[in-house]
Amino acid sequence: MKATVPARSRSHFHRIFVSVSASALLIGLAGCGSTSARVSDSSVDFGQVAMGTQVRRIAVNVTASGDNDVTVAPKLSGSGDFSIAPDVGCGTKLASHGTCSVVVVFTPTSTDSATATLDLGLSVNDQQISLTGSGVQLTPGQSLVTATDSPLVALYTYAPQGSGDVHIEFGPDTNYGLETSAVTPSAGSPVTIYVAGMRANSTYHMRARTSGGETAMDQTFTTTKITSGTLPPITATSSGTPQSGIEFLNPGFSTASTNFIEAYAVDLEGNVVWAYDYPERTTNALLQSFHVLPDGNILALIGTSSAVAPKSGDPILLREFNLGGVPVRDVTLDQINAQLSGISLVDLHHAVTVLPNGHWLALANAYKSFDGLPGQGDGTKVLGDVIVDVDPSGKVVWTWSEFDTLDVKRAPDGYPDWTHSNAIVYEPDDGNLLVSIRHQNWVVKVDYRNGAGTGKILWRLGYQGDFKLVNGTEPQDWFFGSHQPQFVSSSTAAMFDLTLMDNGYNRQLTPGAACTGTGCYTAIPIYHVDEAAKTATILWRDAIDPSKFSVWGGGTTVLDNGNLEFDLCALGNDSEVDEVTVTGTPQTVWTLKVTGQNLYRANRMPSLYPGVQW
């Protein structure tokens, strides 16, 4: 369908595109004295949804292209079974060149067909989208399996006959072999569970089981191909018995395309079994960290590379989304900045950490100007990092700034990218934080005390820090340009064991003499840290062959079987992930190789579901 809109007089060029995830709605608006629109589809069908449940979907993506912001004020009319989801969406203003999504929830109250109209409330050529859906009444013991907007994910609904928690078992045949987390039914209502962990273009069997002994009839579901972005060539080999589970992969660069999938999971044979892409993506945007939450949703940080200045329209936010890829809660940089005084954050980057109390700790950064810095003129702009503590309501309840706690004149990697922090690690034993600061070659401990701390740096671990290195050679056996510290021991304070990715970037072979060429190498150490004695003893160290020098990115994962996994992110344009034994001569038991992609993070997880081991 094509329509012509009357010409409007405009002093600025405007262009808006609107797309519907379910059925490809496109609307283009152009200024310069005239405006035209092209509509390929204008409706979204939620299909059949079980009574007593609800389904959440991205109904519409709106993209503004041009130099002016666009007002967005979506509203619904018609059936009250449809509602616009809170805590996500477009807000009231869409920045030029930006994209936002309108998420709609359908909660059927009858088996009749429900209809509604979604008015986008655009300040330029407003548009209306038709919504339809119908309820289905499941009788006890019945189930319903439907597709989602994610090609590898099904939505399974089951009406239990009796009491007990419900989980779904699934697999390529009726032996199943995989399962989801269990869900407790509410007041006799059916339960809905996202089933994820399936390969593309494959048929899977699935059925519900309850803790009370019920077993539903077998159903089948066929996945389709991922088309929203590109995936790289992946190979996996095993020479031993690796820790079971799946591998979460988070690339930061791809040679194949700017439209590469930035968050996906593979099984230990290298097959992609889950993937997430986000519609707000721009050429600058990067999904840089994601974690499974206790309720089974996923938390991700989306921003730009920490040293790249964001542009208008770049998405900068913390996002909770379900396994089907639908946003549940967003906290944007604008919302965070609105609560701060004395500082304006530029970006969210590298890492977000989930605390036991549900708070999110995220890395951000800001610029400040300084005079009299070594080798610099007056008014030098310096980029430093900040931690923001966001509670479940979206309120910023605690902040920490490196400008207040570090010597800005100490800059081993120069300016403006003074610190380049890349990880936050929570210490359960005393409620404090470890922060990995790449361009200082330090891991520092911050007085957080579960949000009641002063923010003071309690110590600095690394070259020229507060600890004596034992069982190693100063300075080269310290870590340089490191990423992703992880506790090896159950203890996290006083005396504990710590590992990290020692990238070896600007490794000091002797004081003041950094490595060059083949003298540079990456290492995976384990340190025993004694906070009182201020000693860091090398317990184990795997110095990687210099031919696999990985200058940036990557990390380590401590596995339940006692092995250690590490991610060599930057082998040119490729990556390698290895699981090795922590022995005198480390033995490689599993290797994953990815061609044409740098994996910023790669971490072994038990499954896609909390509390479930595959």
UniProtKB/TrEMBL annotation:
Domain of life, source organism: Bacteria
A GO molecular-function annotation: aryl sulfotransferase activity
Classification via Gene3D superfamilies: Immunoglobulins (2.60.40.10)
Protein name: Arylsulfotransferase N-terminal domain-containing protein
